[in-house]
Write a structure and sequence with these properties.
single chain; alpha/beta; 10-stranded mixed beta sheet
Amino acid sequence: MELDFSASLPTTKSITESTDSLNCVCVCLCVCVCVSVCVFWFCSLTYNTWIRGYLRRADQNQDGKMSYDEVKRLLQMINIDLSEQYARSLFKKCDRSCDGRLDHIEIEEFCRELMRRPELDSVFRHYSSNGCVLSTAELRDFLGDQSEDASLLHAQSLIRTYELNDWAQRNQFMTQNGFTMYMLSLENDVFNPDHGRVYQDMSLPLAHYYISSSHNTYLTKDQVTSASSAEPYIRALNQGCRCVELDCWDGDKGEPVIYHGHTLTSKVPFKEVIETICQYAFKASPYPLILSLENHCSVEQQSVMAKHLRTILGSKLVIKPLPDQPLKDLPSPEELRGRILVKGKKETPHLGQLGKTGSYASFSSSSDDELASSKKEPGKVVSSKLSPELSELVVYCRSVPFRGFDDPADKPANEMSSFSESDALKHIKDSGKLFVRHNSRQLSRIYPSGQRLQSSNYDPQEMWNGGCQMVALNFQTPGEQMDLNQGRFLPNGRCGYVMKPGFLRSATSNFNPENTGGGPGHIPTQLTIRIISAQQLPKINTDKASSIVDPQVWVEIHGVAIDNSRDKTHRIDNNGFNPRWDCTLSFQLQVPELALVRFVVEDHDHTAKNDFVGQFTLPFTSLRTGYRHVHLLKADGSRLSPATLFIHVKVSRKGVPIKTVSERIGLAKGKA
């Protein structure tokens, strides 16, 4: 077949059009080249530009060099949290002149080492077309894949907030340094920041919420010999606790005291505790505080207790039902905002002749449902009479013995029962569905076994699965159980009230915590967590200067029995500064709304139990997908700053993955 070359010869008109097109192409190429040159030039000057600006501000004596104190000032300016150990180590490494001061070149090296995060660089390069900067559009793609606000305004806001370079800010670019700053910020935390404020409906009855609760709040340590003090009340209230316990006994000079009776624990005046509670009740949360009174006082000293409650707490104390509030349902946290409730026995006319039966006429948080409490706790003596003045302060939390699950609609909403941990577990296992329905309308308080002399704690998750609201723990005892408690009450502004899932709030619920398959709340979900790396894990054995942590990471799921699971990474030897695992762990969840996710870092030990390094616990419903940092906490719940984990989270529900922006685009192209 011959080719017709004449057809390819240009006409005068086509030559003119081609010339115009060529000029246009040349202009476009010139613009592209100029932009590329500018970006290349910018990339080569990135460190110099931002270092000079911050160096001038941090260099207090303007001598062009920086002492260690001036370097710490620089770190504060650029909002980088670095431990003292690693900051000094890095400073010493970069001080090649060994004069205790860093010149310009040494400072640049310090900053490069400081910002070096290969795993973050890899994420950055994946989204950056030139490997040097992220355009606004590229940043929006990343935000979309993170399931975040991918609007232009939000992307521009992030550039203004985290980009350190003036040129990049003016041209709406994000550099590798700016991206690193953003990824390290709390804005990119694994915990959903929207849940850091009160975001739930607070107008439902009290029984529809989990309520952060403390057991024997006055104790500093164990149940036998430790000190009783007002300080633990301050700590508990500052943590958002909304139900505290007061174990009241007759004291000298007519003044009641609080302590663990018939033990060697010290005593603290009742009046002092109430004054402390009044001062700190609403510093961490505006929602109602419940005082759980375990009353062992004479009638005379009960009257003194009532007097102190009225005079010290004043208008905060609820002494009668709210106006226009029938007792068909309990009032809401919102309606009781700023108010204090008394939980205890309430005298009623037809029980007046039962004064000989102590359990009916006493305020008791640990034996309300035990008519034979003296048999279970031989050393325990409760008051046989109830002061009318104290009785009338009980309005919405009237303690009654548990009388079974029959006729739930006939039970007044203000009646509540207390259960030992063993009794509560028995109800959950034998009558789980009925207990859930009971807890949809009545308040239940769970307390630890009397055998826990060292103030150890039971697993609160099992009680939450049954819809129990007031799961009382020994706040003074750190450990896994208190980690779970802190995680449960982390969302909703840490106000101490967290709304129970809908299937735990219905009086006709068919949810059974012991048999969840196919029932309410059953949403098969796959959770995939890639543990990528950790940063600045502290040395555990501080006695040995050469000791370096050998970290490994556990991820635990705490929920209904079928969901409980844990898995771990391999260990990394001798690296606490930047260990890297790239280890993927997968979990199958059946009732995700009840699940807590706990990250635990341990220092591996060949010869003994692994040492605890740090942890972080949060509800699955507050877990954010995408690339995230986990800011670890110490055993006591305080921040282990600046130690973090860097992870990637992916969630698939009912076998259908929640697709990222790039996956959706690829799918659309495949269909086109």
